[in-house]
């Protein structure tokens, strides 16, 4: 299974189905199983910056 940023080209393949499972978007294709993919989640590797984390009242100097 591939992890892709965009599933647009895979969903246009013959026999493709777009499904949502556990909050993720998948394309499954029973006619041609090599066209299986999951849409990449851009929040998975997000790291909060130090400046953002300590902004506001009570921020250390």
Give me the number of helical elements. Answer: 2
Helical percent range?
10-25%
Task: Name the overall outline.
Answer: rod-shaped
Q: Averaging pLDDT over every residue, what do you get?
A: 82
The helix-strand sequence is EHEEEH
Main sheet overview: 4 strands, mixed
Strand content: 25-35%
- Calculate the terminal CA-CA distance, rounded to whole Å: 47 Å
Arrangement of strands in the largest sheet: 1-4-3-2
Give a verbal description of the structure.
β3 (24-29) and β4 form a beta hairpin. 13% of the residues lie in helices and 30% in strands. It has helices at 8-11, 50-53; strands at 2-4, 16-21, 24-29, 37-39. Strands 1-4-3-2 form a four-stranded mixed β-sheet, with no helix packed on it. It is of the alpha+beta class and 61 residues long. The protein has a domain at 2-41. The chain is built from two helices and four strands. The mean pLDDT is 82.
Give keywords:
61 residues, 30% strand, 2 helices
Per-chain topology:
Blueprint (H helix, E strand, L loop, with lengths): L1 E3 L3 H4 L4 E6 L2 E6 L7 E3 L10 H4 L8
Summarize the structure.
By secondary structure, this protein is of the alpha+beta class. The protein contains two helices and four strands.
